[in-house]
Amino acid sequence: MADFEDLGWGPVENSQHDLGIDLFLQVRDERRFDRTVLMTAQVKAGASYFSSPQHDATGEVTGWWYAESDARHFEDWVQHGLPHLLVLHDLDRRLSYWAQVSKDSVEPSGEGFKVLVPSSQRVERAQVPALLEVAASAKTAWSLEGSAWNAGAKAVAPGRAVRHALIAPRLIAPHPNAGRDRVLEPEEAIALVSQGRADEFQFYLDANPALAELEQQTGWRWRFLYACLRALEDEDVTALLELAADPVTRHHRHSYRRAAAAVACAVFLADAERWQEAETVLEAAGGDLPPVDHAWLLLHQALLAGERGEVARARTLAAECQREVILDSDDITARAIAAAAAAFLFESSRWDIRDLKETLTTGDTASSWWRSQSVAWALTDHDRQVFLSWGACEEPGAKLVDWSEERLQGVWLQACFSGSRRAAARPMAQRAGHAVMHQETRWRSLPPSVARDGTVTALGDAVDALRRYGHTKELAGAVRRLWASGPAVCLAQPLERSLEAAWRHTTAGTKLLLWELAGDLLPTEQADAAATECLRILDDLPAFEQQVHPMFVSDHYTQLALGRILSAAGEALHVETVSYLLRALEQGDSVVEDLARLTHRLRPSAVESVVPRWRSAALGQSHSGLSAAMLSLLAGAGDQEAQDVLAHRAQNGELDALAILPQAHLGDAAEARLAAFFTEQCHAQIADARQNAWGLGGVDHGRWLVWCGLTFPAHANWSSVLELINHPRVANEHKLGAMDLLARRADELPPAVVEQLRQSAAVQPDQLTGVAAIEAPERLQEAAISLGLSLGVLDTRAVLARVSRWLRGGTAQRLTAARLSALAHRRSDDLLLQGMLLTLASDPHYRIRAVAAAALTRSLARPSNAACEEAVLAAANDAGCHTPHAIASTLPGACANEGLRQQLHDVLTHHPSAQVRAAANPP
Questions:
Q1: How many beta carbons lie within 10 A of that of residue 756, not counting itself?
Q2: How many CB atoms lie within 10 A of CB 619?
C-alpha cells in the first residue's frame, strides 16, 4: 500500500470481502489529479513468492513466475471489469514488483496457470506512465452511432461542454432539422459557430433573445460566444483577451473557462501572426488545470514553440500532452488533442524515425471524421455551383456558395482549436483559393468607372491567407496570375504584411515565395528592408534554419527572392549583394547556378568600387556561366578588360560568352568547331529519337545550329537542320527553336535553303509531325505556319482563314492566333489583321493581350491610326504587369509619334513594377 501511496495514488484496502483482490487503486496522474479510474491489485509478500525466477541468456533474473493450480483466481482477474495487477513484495529489500494480469500475460502451467512478474516493473515513480497505460485499458471509447440527432450541451459533462463545442461541435450543436423553437444553451451556440453555422442564429432568435443581445449578456459562456464572434468576424480579440485575464477564472471551479479562453486567444492571435502575445496568454493560464485542459494548453504551447524553432522543447511539450490524456479515451476532445500531438511529433521528427502507423492510428478519430465530412459537403456544394455557372455560360468563380465557405471556415476553427495545424491549413487554403477566384472575377466584371477598392482589398486578404497557411502551390498560382493579369496592386497588401511578419516555420517558405514572384512591386524603402533580410539569412544560414526548421533549400529560395527584390531596391543593396557574392565565392559552398542567376539581377554600377576584386573572382571562376555573368556585369560598368575576355571566349566558341556577345567575330577554326559540335548534337538527337529516347531541357541544339548557319555561312549544315525539323520521331521541343529562328530571319537564308524549306513538310502545318513530349502538336502547326508565312509559301489571306477560326477557340488557340497575327502584321498593313490585333489586345488572357499589344506597338513605327494608338495606350495602363512589360520591351525605336511615345514612356516609368520601369528605361 505504501508504495502506491508514494506514487500519489489512493489505495483502499479490501479487508472484508477478499475474493482475490487486496487493494482498490484510485489512479492519479503525476500532478495528483484524480483520473476517475480504478484498478485492483492482489499483493503477495515474502521470499516464497520469489522462488521461481526467470533468467535470461546471461543468467540475470528477468522476473518471477507466480502460479496457482486453481484457475478460478486467474479467471476472475482476467474477466474483472477493472484492470488487475499482481504485486510481489520483497520484505527484505522493501521493493514491490507488478504485472498486469490479462489474457495475453497468463500462461498455462500444466496443472494450472502462471504469470510472469518482470523484475523491471517496480512500483515506483518511473513506472507511472506504464501503470497509467494499464489503467487506461479500463475505459471504453464512446459509441457515437446514432448520436447526430441527440446533439446538445448535455451530451457531455458540464465542465467539458465548452471544449467539446470548440473541438467536436458535432456532439453539441443542434441538428439543423431538429427544430428551431428550442432554447439554446450557450455551448450549443458556440458549437454552431465552430461548425460554421453562425448564420443559423437568425432562425433561433424567437426562442433565444440572448442571441440578439450578446454584447449585453453577463453570463461567462454568452460573453465567450460574443468574444469568439468578434475575433472571427472583425479580427478583434480584445474581448477574448479580457476573458482570459478575468480573475474569476482562476478559481478551480472555472478552470475550463480559463483553458477555453486561453486556447481561443492563442488560435486567433497566431492566425494574426501575433505569436508572442499568443504565447503570453497560454503561459498566463497556469499549470494547475485538469488533465485534458492542461494537455490542451501544452499542445498549443508546443505548436507555438515549434513555429519559433524551439523544436526540442516543442516535442517535449507534445509528448507531455500525450501522457496527460492517456486515461481519457472516453473523451472525444482528448482523442483529438492526442492525435494532434502525435501528428506534430511525426512532422517534427527525422524522416528515418517517423512512425507512420502510430500517427495514422492515433489520428483516426471521430473529430477528424466529422471535419472530413464537413469538407466533403462544402466542396460538393461548391463544385455543384461551379458546374451550374458553367452551364449558364458564366465564369466558374462568379458565384460563391456562402454555406460552403462558412463550413470550410468552421472546419478550420475546429482543427485550430484541436491543435491540428496541417488539418486547419487545408480548408482555409481552399477557402482562400475560392475567394481569389471569386474576387478576381468580380473585379474584372466591374466597369473601370466603379470603385473597386473593396474587391482589391478582399483579393489581398485572400492572397495573404495563402501565405499565412503555408500553401506554396496555391500561393504561387494566385500571385503569378495577379501579377501578370491584374490587379497587381492587390499584392501590395500581402507584401507589406509579409515584411512585418516574423520568420516562422509555417510561413517562411511562402514569405520567400511571395517575394520571389512579386518583390518587384515593393516600394524602394520596403524593397531595401526585404533585401536586407535576405542578405541577413544568406550570411548566417545555420541560424535561420535553426529558427524556422525549413522544409525547403534555404539559400536557393532566399537567393531567388533577393533576385526579384533587387529590381526595386536601391543602389546600396546592390552593392551589399555584390559583397555577399564575393564572400560566397570565397567560401565556395554555394550553388554556382544560383549565384549566376543572382549576378544577372545586379546593376553594373554596383561593382564599380570593387572592380579588381570582382574581375579576379570572375577570371578565377571555373563555372563558365557564372564567370560570363560576372564579366558581363563588369563590361556593363565599362571595364575594357572584361569586354576583351568575353570577346576572346566568344571567339573560342564558349556558349555562355556567345549568349552575351552574339555578334562577336570568331576565327574560322572556332566557327567550324562550333558548327560541327551542334551538327553532332543534332544528329545525336535524331539517333535517340529513332530509339524512342528524348532528352528534354538544356541547350537548344537545333536553334544554335540555325544560328551557326546564318552567322557562319561557310560552315553551315542546312541538311542537318532540315533532317531535324522533318524527322517525325524528333520531339516538338527540339524543332521549335530552330523553326522560330528560321521564321524570324527568313530574309537572311540562302535561296537554295529557302527552296528546300518550301518543298519540305516544315511549311505544311497539316503534314509536319513530331513527338509531343511537352509541347502540343498545335504548337508545331503554329511554327509551320509562321515559317510558311515568312518564306512566302502561305499568304496573309491563308493565315487569316486559319486565325479567324482560332479566335473562337480556347486560350491556346487564341494565343496561336495572336502570335500569327503579330507575325503577319509585320509583313502586311492589312486592316483586317490590325482589327484582329485590336480585338486580341483586350482578350481576357494576359499572354494574348501582351502579344497583340506588342505587335500594335511595333506597328507604331509606321503611320498608324487613332484606334491603334488608343489600344496601345490602354494596354500600357493594364492592371497587370505582363502586358505593360511587353510594351516597354518593344517601345524603344517603335513609335514614330513623339508625343505618344512620351505619353507611353511616362505611364510605363510610373508603373508599380520595377521590372516594367526598368524595361521602359533600358541602359
A1: 16
A2: 13
Alpha helices in 285-365 (DSSP H): 291-308, 311-324, 332-347, 356-363
d(C-alpha 65, C-alpha 99), whole Å: 10
pLDDT digit string (tens) for 105-126? 888 877 778 889 999 999 988 8
**What is the distance between the alpha carbons of residues 783 and 741, in angstroms, rounded to a whole number?**
10
Give the three cell numbers for residue 732. Answer: 516538338
Write down the pLDDT at residue 18.
57
Please provide the distance, in angstroms rounded to a whole number, between the alpha carbons at the two ends of the chain.
89
In degrees rounded to 5, what are phi and psi of residue 693? -125, 130
Provide the grid cell at 271. Answer: 492566425
Length of the chain: 923
Give Cα 625 distance to the centre of its chain.
Answer: 32
User: Is the CB of residue 573 less than 8 Å from the CB of residue 528?
Assistant: yes
Which has the closest alpha carbon to 820: 808, 839, 836, 831?
836
Q: Virtual CA dihedral for 684, 690, 691, 692, nearest 10 degrees?
A: 100
Q: Give the residue ranges of DSSP H helices in 521-568.
A: 524-539, 541-548, 554-566
The beta strand positions in 801-900, using DSSP E, are none
**Whole-number Å distance between alpha carbons of 897 and 104:** 94
Distances (CA, A) of 698 to 370, 592, 709, 734: 49, 16, 21, 11
User: Rounded to whole angstroms, what are the CA distances from 548 to 138, 345, 764?
Assistant: 41, 16, 57
Question: What DSSP string describes 426-445?
Answer: HHHHHHHHHHHHHHHHHHHH
DSSP state string for 63-97: EEEEEES-SHHHHHHHHSSS-EEEEEEETTTTEEE
Q: Using one digit for the tens of pLDDT, what is the confidence trace for 695-714?
A: 877 889 999 999 999 988 99
pLDDT in tens, 753-785: 999 999 998 888 888 998 887 777 888 888 999
570 neighbors 564 (Cβ within 8 angstroms): no
Burial label, 100 (beta-carbon count in 10 A; 0-12, 13-18, 19+): buried
HSE of 569 in the Cβ direction (CA atoms, 13 Å)? 28
CB atoms within 10 A of CB 257: 23
State which amino acid sits at residue 358: E
Rounded (10°) CA dihedral 907, 909, 910, 911: 80
Q: What angle do CA 251, 257, 260 make, to 5 degrees?
A: 140
Please tell me whether the peptide bond between 487 and the residue prior to it is cis, using omega within 30 degrees of 0.
Answer: yes
Locus of grid cell 535470461: 56
User: At 68, which amino acid appears?
Assistant: E
Residue 878 sits at the vertex; the CA angle it makes with 430 and 838, to the nearest 5 degrees, is 115
Report the interhelical angle of 421-445 vs 453-468 (nearest 10°). 160
Cα distance between residue 882 and residue 898, in whole Å = 24
Using CA atoms of 319, 321, 322, 327 in order, give the dihedral in degrees to the nearest 10: 150
Q: Report whether 66 contacts 97 (CB < 8 A).
A: no
The yes-or-no verdict on residue 147 having pLDDT over 80 is no
862 Rama class: left (phi>0) / alpha (psi -120 to 50) / beta: beta
pLDDT (0 to 100) of residue 19: 63
Label residue 109 exposed, middle or buried (CB < 10 Å: 0-12, 13-18, 19+): middle
Closest Cα to residue 327, out of 103, 128, 174, 467? 128
Q: How many CB atoms lie under 10 A from the CB of residue 186?
A: 24
DSSP letters, 518-534, are HGGGS-HHHHHHHHHHH
The answer to whether 735 and 783 are in contact (CB under 8 A) is yes
Asked if residue 44 lies in contact with residue 87, where contact means CB atoms within 8 angstroms, the answer is yes
Helix axes 777-790, 732-744, angle to 10 degrees: 20
Cα-based distances in Å from 53 to 57, 98, 832: 13, 14, 102
